[in-house]
Amino acid sequence: MELNTPLYNLSTFSEVYEPSEDTFLFVDALEADASFLLGLKPKVAIEVGSGSGVVMTSLAFLLKNSCSYFSTDINLQACCATKDTANLNGVSIECLNMDLLSGFKSNMFDIILFNPPYVVTDSSEVSGTGLNRAWAGGVNGREIIDKLLSNISEMLTDKGVCYLLLLKENNPQEVISIMSNLKFDFKLVIQRKVPGELLYIYKFFRKFKIWL
């Protein structure tokens, strides 16, 4: 199933990450896994760090009104941009200005999407302001990623899945090992070499669930 690229306009949001290769790779991953996502029949989905809102809007294009859509971002401008993109494309996304998933109850989400700040930087840049927060990942680009990994099991429903974008330098095999210890299996949905980066999107799901 081919997904149309959502309309967006960030001209009034100077501190929001402009959709780029990683954004559109994520949209392509959702498109590639469309049959699975439709068969999952999710009721609640969330994007962590939604930025422009293009990725979550794409998921809403796919699943339509069968699902409730949430997003979070620590950047208030990004929350406004996500809401603007949703409205521009005729979908409904509830966007909350918060860090990761800190304000939600357990076992709430059937789908978690996370295109994290993955660039390898000094730790001091992780707590920066503005656009830095959209890409600065700290040591191995993993400081924000690892914070979320520890909460995924608690936040997902039994059938829930997490789509996570990783850079080669993030050491994906180590992430897979961490998730395996949390009793999650994985599937590599898509990978792509872009200028200066090798990107992967993995789907993580509980080991006792059998997915095609």
TrEMBL record:
Residues 41-121 form the Methyltransferase small domain. One of its GO terms (biological process) is methylation. GO terms for molecular function: nucleic acid binding; protein-glutamine N-methyltransferase activity. Keywords: Methyltransferase, Nucleus, S-adenosyl-L-methionine, Transferase. It holds the Pfam family MTS. It is found in: Nucleus. It comes from the Eukaryota. One of its GO terms (cellular component) is nucleus. It catalyses: L-lysyl-[histone] + S-adenosyl-L-methionine = N(6)-methyl-L-lysyl-[histone] + S-adenosyl-L-homocysteine + H(+); methylarsonous acid + S-adenosyl-L-methionine = dimethylarsinate + S-adenosyl-L-homocysteine + 2 H(+). Belongs to the eukaryotic/archaeal PrmC-related family. Methyltransferase that can methylate proteins and, to a lower extent, arsenic. Catalytic subunit of a heterodimer with TRMT112, which monomethylates 'Lys-12' of histone H4 (H4K12me1), a modification present at the promoters of numerous genes encoding cell cycle regulators. Catalytic subunit of a heterodimer with TRMT112, which catalyzes N5-methylation of Glu residue of proteins with a Gly-Gln-Xaa-Xaa-Xaa-Arg motif. Methylates ETF1 on 'Gln-185'; ETF1 needs to be complexed to ERF3 in its GTP-bound form to be efficiently methylated. Heterodimer; heterodimerization with TRMT112 is required for S-adenosyl-L-methionine-binding. NCBIfam families: hemK_rel_arch. This is Methyltransferase HEMK2. It comes from Exocentrus adspersus.
